[in-house]
Records
---
Amino acid sequence: MEKGKIISHSRPCISDEDISKVAEVVASGRLADSSQVGLFEKELSAYIGQKGGIATNSGTNALHLALSSIPFNHGSEAIIPSYVCIAVLNAVICAGLHPVMVDIAERGFNISLEDIEKKLNRRTRAIIVPHMLGDPVETIDEIVALGVPVIEDCALSVGATRFGKKLGSYSDTSIFSFYATKMLATGQGGMVLSRSARTLEDIRDMMVYDNRKSYRKSYNFRMTDMQAALGRSQLARLDDFIGRRRKIASQYHYAAKGRVELPYRPSESVFFRYVMLVDDPDSFIKEMLSQGIDCRRPVFKPLHQYFHLPADEFPNTERMYSRSVSIPLYPALKDEEVEHIVRVLQEL
Ligand SMILES: *Cc1c(COP(=O)(O)O)cnc(C)c1O
């Protein structure tokens, strides 16, 4: 490791092949005729095991569209966990639903089935289930069985499985993000997948605004072909990315075990983040930065805190938020960077 160099908290994994695929589209002059977009939709839906997909310009807007395909009226509610990024809350509010926040489970980072059951009522029209930090929600079957439309949020878990079945294929409709820091990067971007032909048709119709016979409130949420070309090229390497993430995670695990508290991570995680539990995340982050390692809290601020909801309704979220730090883990890490992080962990 060069002295004074900082290992960034995330960095996309861009190959020469990625660059030439994007350059081909740019050179063709067909920047938005959707030929690459159509192929990306086919390839991701086949990879996940859903009927079809609709690419979007962000994960937030993918969720907005997925929610808009569910019938609801004024006062209808969507259940979301409090321990998640604010994009989820924004999509719920922009789609016109009332957000109802629930706690995460006693162990791990994922939504609590018990708290969903507590807050479920006749106004609930959707349950958004993020597979946080690459970890499959272990109660996904039970949540789907509640009978309310479930949208799996796979923004942080593309390619992860539960019992060998890909996340994003448990619920009828699921969403993905390809923001620059995610498992697959297209800069900005997202996708809705669904097993329902009607949902796919409806969402596609919401994205058509030109040359309509009759008016419908519709959205320009489309992905460009440059982004789709990058997404396709990245998807071809996703399984390698996941393999590399798991290998680095196990190196960190053996280095940190016994020195620092490690959270429960379900098997089949793709380790979007490697998280450790410390008493004072802010001073830990400062300390790690002085050693050339940029660490972050995995979630900036739990959602219930924006609304000043009582902390004691979200004990697990509060505990995880107050103790979690994420250290750099991504396939673009160089071996020497991993070795440096491992050495620092061994000295904790
Ligand atoms: C990033 C993210 C989103 C939103 O995706 P964008 O592409 O940034 O709009 C939604 N849900 C989760 C869990 C995310 O991490």
---
Amino acid sequence: MMAFDIKRLIRDNVRDLKPYASARDEYVSDGSEKVFLDANENPFDNGLNRYPDPQQRSLKSILAELRKLNEDQILLGNGSDEVLDLIFRAFCEPKSDNIITVPPTYGMYKVLAGINDVENREVILNANMELEVDNILDRTDDNTKLIFICSPNNPTGNRFISSDIERLLNSFEGIVVVDEAYIDFSRGKSWIAELENHPNLLVTQTLSKAYAMAGIRLGICYGAPEIIAVLNRIKPPYNVNELTQQKASQILLDKNLVPEQVATILDEREKMSRALTAIPYIDKVFPTDANFILVRVDDALQRYNQLIDRGIVVRNRSTLPRCENTLRLTVGTPEENIKLINVLKTI
Ligand SMILES: *Cc1c(COP(=O)(O)O)cnc(C)c1O
């Protein structure tokens, strides 16, 4: 096993890049009153007339404290989608590098590979929806830069076996990205705790799911300062707007709201899983560590359309490998879940 060498992984153009220095980068406010005539802003104060902090220091300090990390281990983006795109752009040379994804999984990794003109090597999960670690490692070569693991996985709902992810981290010389969009619903613990042991680990999280803030678009990437510094060099200067920074800080500092909502969602998840098991045409209710439940039915398209006709929209995941005739059901409010179960019983 070779040591992790970030210089080998970074694209040449990114390594040599001189980042755009914004007005707010060149002069960092120390909080004391100044006359700011450096950024061509409208000077009349309405709370938003100034550019936001490009390094999002205040928000990062809140996250650093919550996650027990340093601010230089945190990158913020306009949703996870931007964060994931930055990871591609930093490390993957178009037309020559490749990545590995493990379908059935989140579709954005493949889309981003396409946009960035990077080969996507797919290693399908086994019949238990677990990682095929040996097959994944066999498919890597000198041009494999990234492996994307979504845990808990969307759309299957399971979290992956820790020792499988550990083996990837120990054996792969590129970067393993663990997407933890659903970690707050999981019985397993976050890989953030393992960052100090694995220089090639990146963990992504989001405020879009448990934190009830999909509308503000805030994605987070945690990793070694060396990697985070590379991503910060290439991000658009003002990628996280002022309203998002303020709203994100507010929700993160509220110690009660999100944990209470998550507890309710978890209760509902268990109730729903039990109720779904009793429905005759549901052949399988997949175990879940997320805020959704994958079910296998007799005829997914027919059931999907019957639900739509009764005003309920779910996701048909049947085109994904190992997901024939499956629907993905998000856990809603108690009232919504009762409605879903009642409708499922009558169709
Ligand atoms: C929903 C989801 C995200 C969140 O993306 P945002 O751009 O932050 O809203 C990320 N990864 C997975 C697997 C998801 O399901």
